[in-house]
Design brief:
It is a single chain. The protein is mostly helical and about 250 residues long. About 70% of the residues lie in helices and about 0% in strands. The chain contains eleven helices and two strands, in the order H-H-H-E-E-H-H-H-H-H-H-H-H. The chain has helices spanning about 1-15, 15-20, 30-45, 75-85, 85-110, 115-130, 140-160, 165-185, 190-210, 215-235, 235-245, and strands spanning about 55, 60-65. Strands 1-2 form a two-stranded antiparallel sheet. Strand 1 and strand 2 (about 60-65) form a beta hairpin. Helix 3 packs across helix 4 (about 75-85). The longest helix has 26 residues, at about 85-110. It is globular and about 60 Å long. The model has no long low-confidence stretch (mean pLDDT about 95).
C-alpha cells in the first residue's frame, strides 16, 4: 500500500490549502462561475430525491441532465455534491481527480509488469503534474486524464484475464471508466482517451497474436466485446446527449 498511499499523500500536500483551508482557486473562471453552481444544483436535486432533467435557474430554464457538462451520471460529481455541502464538495472534487489519475496510472503500470517503485513514480508523476498546476482547476482536462488512466488500467487487466468471468468483469470496469471519460470531457478528452485505448489495445493484441498467446479471431472477439460493452453500458449517458446535441452550438461543429 505504500505506493498508492504516497500518491494520495502527495496530492493532499499539493492541494492542502484547497482541501483544508477552503482556498478554491479562481485562476480559471469556470470552476466557481460554471462548475460549482451546476454541480451544486445537481447534488442538491439528487439529495432531495429528484432527477434534475430541467434547470429553471438558467436563461429562464434549460435542459439539464441531457447537457454534456451538467455532471449528470458523472459519479464523482453526483456522489460528492449529494453527500456534502457544495462549498466542501468542490474542494474534494478538485482533490479527487488527480488522485484517481495517479492511482489509475499506478494500476496500469503494475498490470503491465512494472515494479512497485516504478509504478509509484509514474502515478506520483501524473498526479502531481495535475495537482501542482492549473490543470487541477481545469476540471474537464483533469477528469479526462484521470479516467483515461483508469480506462487503460482496466483494459490492461481485461486482455490477459485467465478466466471468462474475470475478463467480463474487467471489460465491464473498462466500459464504466470510458463512460466516465465521456461525462468528464465529451469532446477533446474523449477523443484523446479513446485514442489512447485504441493504441494500447492494438499494440497489446498484436503482440499477443505474434507471440501465439491468442489467435487473430480471439483478439478481434475481445476487442469487439470491449467496444460493445462500452456502448451498451453507457447508453444512459450517450443517448440523452446525442438527442440534445442538435439543439446546441456544438451541433454546428466543435
Amino acid at each position: 500500500w505504500a505506493g498508492p498511499a504516497l500518491i494520495v499523500g502527495a496530492v493532499l500536500l499539493a492541494l492542502h490549502d484547497v482541501v483544508f483551508r477552503g482556498m478554491v482557486s479562481n485562476q480559471h473562471a469556470d470552476l466557481l462561475a460554471f462548475w460549482l453552481p451546476n454541480h451544486c444544483f445537481l447534488g442538491t436535486s439528487l439529495a432531495a430525491g429528484s432527477i434534475p432533467s430541467w434547470n429553471p435557474f438558467t436563461l429562464g430554464g434549460t435542459p439539464f441532465a441531457s447537457d454534456p457538462q451538467s455532471g449528470w451520471l458523472y459519479l464523482p460529481a453526483m456522489a460528492l455534491y449529494a453527500a456534502l455541502p457544495c462549498h466542501v464538495a468542490v474542494r474534494w472534487f478538485v482533490l479527487a481527480q488527480p488522485i484517481l489519475g495517479g492511482l489509475g496510472t499506478y494500476g496500469f503500470l503494475r498490470s503491465e509488469g512494472l515494479s512497485r517503485p516504478a509504478a509509484t513514480v509514474g502515478g506520483v508523476g501524473l498526479a502531481l503534474a495535475v495537482a501542482g498546476s492549473l490543470v487541477a482547476v481545469y476540471l474537464p482536462f483533469a477528469g479526462a486524464l484521470a479516467w483515461t488512466a483508469l480506462l487503460l488500467a482496466a483494459a490492461s487487466r481485461a486482455f490477459p484475464a485467465a478466466t471468462r468471468v474475470a475478463r467480463i468483469g474487467w471489460i465491464a470496469a473498462a466500459a464504466v471508466a470510458w463512460g466516465q471519460l465521456v461525462s468528464a470531457h465529451p469532446t477533446n478528452g474523449l477523443a484523446l482517451g479513446t485514442g489512447a485505448l485504441a493504441a494500447y489495445a492494438a499494440a497489446r493484441l498484436m503482440a499477443d497474436v505474434r507471440a501465439g498467446r491468442r489467435t487473430t479471431g480471439a483478439a478481434l472477439a475481445v476487442s469487439g466485446g470491449l467496444v460493445a460493452a462500452m456502448l451498451a453500458v453507457n447508453l444512459a449517458i450517450l443517448l440523452p446527449r446525442l438527442a440534445y446535441l442538435p439543439r446546441t452550438t456544438m451541433g454546428l461543429g466543435f
